[in-house]
Amino acid sequence: MTAMLNVKDLRAYYGQVQALHGLSFSLNEGSLTTLLGANGAGKTTTLRAICNMVRSTGAIEFEGKPIGTRSTENVVRLGIAHVPQGRGTFTNMTVEENLQLGAISRSDTKAIGSDIERMYEHFPVLKQRYTQQAGTLSGGEQQMLAVARALMLRPRLMLLDEPSFGLAPLIVRDLFRILGKINREEKVTILVVEQNAQLALELADQAYVIETGRIVMSGNAKDIANNEDVRKSYLGY
Amino acid sequence: MELFANQVLAGIATGAIYACMALAVVMIYQAIDHLNFAQGEMAMFSTFVSWQLMQWGVPYWGAFVLTVAFSFAAGIVIERLLFKPLAKAPILTNVAGFIALYAIINSVAGLIWDFTIKQYPTPFGSSPFLGSQLISTHQAGMIGITLLMLVLLFFFFRFTRVGLAMRAAASLPESARLVGINTSWMIALGWGMASAIGSIAGMMIAPVVFLEPNMMLGVLIYGFAAAVLGGLTSPFGAVMGGFLVGIFENLVGTYIPGVGNELKLPIALALIIVVLVVKPAGLFGRAIVKRV
Fold first, then answer.
1. What number is the ipTM of this complex?
2. How many domains does chain A fold into?
3. How many Å lie between the alpha carbon of A73 and the closest alpha carbon of chain B?
4. Are B8 and B243 spatial neighbours (Cβ–Cβ below 8 Å)?
5. CATH number for the domain including A196?
6. Chain B: residue nearest A72 by CA?
7. CA A27, CA A157: separation in Å to the nearest integer?
8. Which of B164, B182, B291 has the CB atom closest to A100's CB atom?
9. Interface test mutation site (partner A, options B30, B177, B233, B288, max chain A beta carbons within 10 A)
10. Per-residue pLDDT averaged across A34-57, rounded?
11. Considering only residues 102 to 161 of chain B, which have any Cβ-Cβ distance to chain A shorter than 8 Å?
């Protein structure tokens, strides 16, 4: 397996404050990787740095090409979909318009209609509400919509920032089941940032643990789940 | 009753001017979240360009099309040169930029074409419309053109991908970038469209108010009033607001003693304040439903 995303010595800054202190990690093509860590550890910043939404230094390579200097929209156009924290839903537009926006940078316009239908198969609840203003959806439905919108890009890599945040446990299970399915069936490489470590480790095959802007542990998700320090710090048993 | 009906009709006729201008105001507000104080001057300048073309012998509709194209390009150039560098600056910096632009365009127009009043032709003629003395064929044509622009804008924003991308960039720039939209160019496009719409407004208004560098001064304030009344987020609201301001202004002038031509402009300003206090989203502005 080749590395699809290679991040080396990533340092990120908010004004004068340094949030990442030389982070290095890589994602294998087709993998489902989770990035774990406490509040403020730098998980969100890592994702934002990949999409060039925060000032950073270091090397980021996607499929062998350096992407560190590309603008956010040009990173996305390479096939990197980013589901941000808070979901980034276009609340004043309809569900269907949100899905169309997900595909707005694609040039194969003919296939968009059938892709929207495919999203409705993955997420039947969206089909029931396709003319509704997206802001009227429940939190869980909006998260489904955010994932569907990201998939409309036909991404090679999908970055998810705390998809479980604020959702009921049953809905989180459902969402993670769908993410696993997308990873297997649509061959989308996924990097998911999570505070819900237990679920994330069940789902993922690779895991990284991040503390104050540095990677402190990496490896197979099962091994990480069995690691005593991780269990005490993040799983609570 | 006939007086009332006549005044409403006359109000609609003047309202068409405001509606035209309000449409341009709303376009730019959608793109950049600010009111462009130089909007009226940009429209005035475009109108002078079309006048100059006609002086050189270009027929009316030829000059019309060339002017719209010129204004579209000029709007984009102004955004790229002046306001793109200010994109992250505080609002006040932008406001200062608008005022500077206002003064510059006004003076340059005066320098090139001087401040004397010029006649401006109408393509619709100026005979009474359907036998009514209150509304001329030009005013009817102007209403028609305004409504046509409104319909075209509606279809553009509702059914084209570029229109969807522009709406996305205006409502949530960060999310828009995350679906691959170049938000910076969407803003430039918004400037181009607002400038083009403004040029049409200018060319429609000029036969009524005569062509001179200060022709848009009052019109722009009415345009703001119309846009605020209708809702700054709604092109449809802006046009309706334009007609309503026109009607309101006429009725107040007719039925409230003491309000002559001198007090008409304060009415527009008072209307802005009342709407902002009572219903900030305007009559047709979209109140966004949010679940928390």
1. 0.89
2. 1
3. 4
4. no
5. 3.40.50.300
6. B177
7. 10
8. B164
9. B177
10. 91
11. 161
How far is residue A154's CA from residue A85's CA, in Å, rounded to a whole number?
A: 20
The whole-number pLDDT of residue A53 equals: 93
**Which pair of tokens denotes residue A90?**
């276009």
Residue B59 structural domain = 2-220
Contacts of B168 in chain A (CB under 8 A): 90, 93, 101, 104
Q: Distance from CA of residue A116 to its chain's centroid?
A: 20
The confidence score (pLDDT) of residue A27 equals 93
pTM: 0.86
Name the amino acid, one letter, at B208: V
- Per-residue tokens: B40: 């009226």
A101 interface with B at CB cutoff 8 Å: yes
- Return the structure tokens found at B237: 């609201």
pLDDT-derived band at B286, boundaries 50, 70, 90: low
Q: How confident is the model at residue B259 (pLDDT cuts 50, 70, 90)?
A: confident
Evaluate whether residue A122 is within a structural domain.
Answer: no
Q: What is the C-alpha to C-alpha distance for residues B55 and B61, in angstroms, rounded to an integer?
A: 13
Residue A139 lies in a domain: no
Q: Which residue among B179, B183, B291 places its CB closest to the CB of A153?
A: B179
Q: Assess whether pLDDT exceeds 50 at residue B292.
A: no
The answer, yes or no, to whether residue B291 has pLDDT greater than 60, is: no
Asked if B167's CB is within 8 angstroms of A135's CB, the reply is no
